[in-house]
Known about the structure:
It is a multi-pass membrane protein. The protein is an all-alpha fold.
Amino acid sequence: xxxxxxxxxxFSSVNLLLFSGLLAAVSACILSGFAGIYFEKILKTxxxxxxxxxxxxxxxxxxxxxxxxxxxxxxxxxxxxxxxYGFDVLVWVVIFWYCVGGLSVAVCIRYSGNIAKNFATSAxxxxxxxxxxYIFDFVPNxxxxxxxxxxxxxxxxxxxSNSS
Length: 164
């Protein structure tokens, strides 16, 4: 039915982009949830393997695919200028913070769980937004404020339900 409507151009390009974006966001949420649960299972079922080793094991799959993708997209620059062309101090600082963030996520999942990691991520987004309000004069809209309230309420409800 959908393909039939697409072929008749009954969907505008805006509706198609909205549908595609919504489908991508829902898919990302579902895959992220399953990945978090699976990662928690991996970390907690084998406590003898360190968090560092688990990250190395996961990187074995991530590094080749990232390398192939970078060669595919930027092969001309990489072959002419080198793999690290354009990397300055700021890029290395960002890479360092991503490494620290990845390790802290792994430690958080290992010792508390996936739900706590999601709450910590949400709280970090809210904290970053509050900092952006003062630093960059960012003005959040009503929908963002509503989402912020939901996150804060859910954190309190989750912490009170676990304490009793």
